[in-house]
Input
Amino acid sequence: MSGHSITEPTRRQKWIAAVLVIAYTVIILIPLLWIISTGFKSPSDAISYPPKVIFTPSLEGYVNLFTTQTRITPDMEATLPPPETWYERLVREKGMVIAGPSRYGQRFLNSVIIGFGSTFLSVFLGTLAAYAFSRFRVPIKDDLLFFILSTRMMPPIAVAIPIFLMYRQLGLSDTHLGMILLYTAVNLSLSVWLLKGFIDEIPREYEEAALIDGYTRFQAFRKVVLPQAAAGIASTAIFCLIFAWNEYAFAVLLTSGEAQTAPPFIPTIIGVGGQDWPAVAAGATLFLLPVMIFTIMLRKHLLRGITFGAVRK
Amino acid sequence: MAEVRLEGISKAFGAQVAIDDVSLTVPDGAFVVLLGPTGAGKTTTLRLIAGLERPDAGRIVIGGHDVTALTPAERNVAMVFQQYSLYPHMSVRENLAFPLRSPVCNLPEEEIARRIGEVAEILQITHKLDNRATALSGGEMQRVSIGRALVRDPVIHLMDEPLSSLDARLRADLRIELKRIQKDLGATMLYVTHDQTEAMTMATHVGVLDHGRLVQFAPPREIYEDPVSIYAASRLGSPRINILPADLFPGAPAGAESIGLRPEHIRLGEGQEAQVVRLEHLGDQTRLHLRLAGHDLITLVAAHADLKRGDSIAVSPQTPLYFDADGNRI
Ligand SMILES: Nc1ncnc2c1ncn2[C@@H]1O[C@H](COP(=O)(O)OP(=O)(O)O)[C@@H](O)[C@H]1O
Ligand SMILES: [Mg+2]
Output
């Protein structure tokens, strides 16, 4: 073995690692590629067997996703003016007309409001609580922290019935506020614990220096602690968003109209006109985007989170 | 700048007494050094003055005002911490500006820029101002953190072993620099170290802390020549003062248990016979290790002393220090 340090992996080890990582990535990405490609297939291509890897791309799935359509007879069609847009033409070719927009857009918006709203609230409250637990002498601190963690010791859905009844009493069923509060409550324990770990890592001396320099406790928190906890806050936010964004069981139980999120809505697309798999796949593909964009935006902080550490001399 | 006075300050952390009834006055414009080994309570003393800790008993008076109940921001003190002094998410310039932008300071930007320029000049970090704080060497970091104290105009500078993490050369340079700056500005300093060279060269007064108690407070020369106890005597002097049983030599006063011999208290060439154990050349001094009636003794000799292991040499004390059974000076 020639001149590499003991801690540095050998060339061979690096190759093995690279092959394993790439193989793993491919396996993980296959279902994702499947969904994305199905979204661009025509309904017949989508269910053909053996599955088509090469196909003529079509936007029919996306058009079906965003519209409701009704069938028309050929004589009726003759009375209509020719289609004006590409998507009207696409629909007309199947002997249908667009009756109006579907509810997907609105459900998607609900997911955005509820997902990001609860993420913001979880991280905001979590940061304040974590700071207090990290820095102040809180009575029965350890018991409180254990209690907060214990809310995650059973699956949240175990308390579905009481929450269902409670929400009905309080008028929170099928409201944005209700879902935001629920997801915040579930995420808060994770957020407090994760953030406390990050804030514990920041030496107190930094805030103390700011206090001596004439800043208030809150200013020291904002100008010194927050920037240094940015990596931790970003990774916590991603975890919170992923949970709230993907949550299915509570969404099915507690939302049906006004505040229904995308996860319970997407399966209902199947029923609209036969087995419309391209529309379902299109709905799922678009649904993936916000979390992906959010994660990519915060990626820099995630990487920094790994090398987290203060200036040590 | 003002006089800082501690009056009967005590502080315990649970059962651990950190500071025990300390009274001490840092005169206006003085450079006071606190000496003591790790755990003696030096850092706690600084934190009490800064307002980061509340004393269990006693008062802290700055410039005639009782500040015991004030917040750190209201006290107008500056502190250089032993560690973690720079904000890693800011540039050097932002770090230096941070104290000046605080709500209590609130200076106009031109004044901030002027002061940063001035301090950067003094500390020779002008070319590093736009670096990130994390992209500095240890010496530069420490100079910037000293700069963070110097840009302000506080009543007192509290410095907690600011040079201890630096290499010997840089420490020597900064020691001289810091003393010069303090003199030029007429600043009041309370400076913690366990480096006796720093204490001897910079201090106008030295306070010796022993397990939270202030055992002696005097100019460094006086502590060196006239220490109150073995403990205080051991804080200063290199090599350390030799402590031997008093009855080894004739002429001990009544009640003396130990005799303290610094190199200058040892006359070679007459008296008790001692064996040469080793000759140690340290460059700036040559230490002679002797064995005298079963006790070790270290003294200094000329660099070219014609001595070797196993030689015999006679030693006798010359105006030594005597201590009683409790280690107190007689
Ligand atoms: N926050 C604290 N909690 C508990 N004990 C402490 C704390 N700060 C200091 N002490 C104790 O007080 C004593 C003095 O500490 P310190 O002032 O840091 O000493 P020095 O700076 O001289 O090394 C030590 O015994 C230390 O363990
Ligand atoms: Mg200390």
Remarks:
- The interface with chain A takes residues 50-52, 71-73, 75-79, 81, 83-89, 98-99, 102-105, 133-134, 138, 141-142, 148, 152, 165 of chain B (CB under 8 Å).
- Residues B 13, 16, 18, 36, 38-44 surround adenosine-5'-diphosphate (ligand 1) (CB under 6 Å).
- The first strand of chain B starts at residue 4 and ends at 13.
- The two ends of chain B are 39 Å apart (CA to CA).
